[in-house]
Amino acid sequence: MPVRLLFALFVLVFGTVGAFAQTATFETAARFAVLMDYESGTVIFQKDADARLEPASMTKLMTLAVVFNELRAGRIKLTDQFFISENAWRTGGAASGGSTMFADLNSQIPVEDLIRSVIIQSGNDAAIALAEGIAGNEATFAGMMNQLARQIGLEGSNFVNSTGLPDPDEYSTARDLANLGRYLIREFPEFYHYFSEPEMEWNGIKQANRNSLIEVGIGVDGLKTGHTEAAGYGAVISTAQGGRRLVAVVHGLGSMRERAEEGRKLLTWGTRAFERFSAYKEGQVVAYADVYGGTSSSVGLVGKGEIALYLPRGSRECLSAKIHYVGPLLPPVKAGEQVAELQVFCNDDLVQSAPLFAAEDVPQGDLVRRATDALKQLALGWL
Fold first, then answer.
1. Sign of the CA dihedral 41, 43, 46, 48?
2. Which residue numbers are catalytic?
3. Which residues of the chain have pLDDT under 70?
4. Is 2.60.410.10 the CATH number for 2-21+277-380?
5. Which pLDDT score is estimated for 145?
6. Which numeric CATH code is attached to 32-272?
7. Any known ligand binding at 281?
8. What would the pLDDT profile of 27-38 be if each residue is shown by its tens digit?
C-alpha cells in the first residue's frame, strides 16, 4: 500500500529490518560510529551502530544517569559525603594503574566532587564510591543501571560495574551510547555544565578533561571518553554549533589523537554538510501501520515532536524513503510506543533514520474482529 509523503514515496515494508546501508558521503576510521540529531533522535550517519562493543569508561555515563536520578529524587544531595572504601581505593585508585581521582583510602568526599571526577578525570575510584554510597555495592548499583537502561530504551546494553573496567558481560552499542548522551542532556540540564569543565584538581594533582575536543573551538561541551586495550579509544561527544545540537559516538580507534580527529571530522561534517527540511509538524501522521486483531485495523505513525530531516545539501532529487516495522502489529498498541522507523535514502545510501511512534492506543479487539483478521491472513496473507 503506497503512502504519500511531502518529498518522496514511502513503501511499507513488513518483516524484520535488514542491515542498513551507510551513507557514502562520509568515511571514518572508527570501527563504530553514530551521528544523531539531538532533538529528534534522527540518525544522520551510522557505522555498525547496533553491533555489540565494549563501552570502557563511556559506561560512566550510565553511572551518572543513575546518580542524577537519585539527586533529582532527593535520595542523595550534592553535599553528602561518600566513603572511599578499600575496594574503591584498590580497584580504582592510583595503585590500579587506571584513570583515578587519587582519593585517599578511608576519606570522605562530597558527591559533587565525585561527579566532577567521574566526568573530568574519569576517576574509577570516584565511580565506585558513588556506586557504593548509593547502593551499598557495585553489583546492586549495576542492577539499578540496567533497570534505568531498560526504561530509557537502551536495548543493546548490559552493565556489571560502574567504571567500565573490562568484563565480558558489560557491553553496549554506538546507538545506545548516543541515546544515553541525549538522555543526559535532555533530562539533566542542571548538571550538564560539569561536562565542559576543562580541568579538576584533587589531592594536589591537576588533571585536564579527557575530552580534548572541548577546547578545539567547534563547540563541543560534553560528554565522555573511554579506552581499554581491547576496545580501543572511543568517545560520546556533543555540540550545539551550527544552530542545532548533534550527538556523536566514535569508538574502536587506535589513539587519543585519532579519536579526537575522527570525532571532530564527524561533528564538523554533520554541522556543515546538511540542510534542514521540515517534513512533518508535531502530531502529524506520517503513515499507518496495520494492526492484527485490534479494535482498529491500523494505527497512525507520528514522530516525537516535529520531524525535521537534515539532508545532504543539494540532494533532494535523489531522495526516496521507506517505513520499516515488524508487522502486522499485535495489540495492545500503546500511544507513544515506538513501533516503526522512517528511513531516508539518497540513491541506495541510507542518509537518515528516525523513530516513529503510535499516535493512539489500539486495544485488543473482540472475538469477531480477531476471527476476521485471522481469516484475512489465512486467505490472502498480510499485504
1. positive
2. 57, 60, 122
3. 1-25, 314-317, 349, 351, 367-383
4. yes
5. 98
6. 3.40.710.10
7. no
8. 999 999 999 989
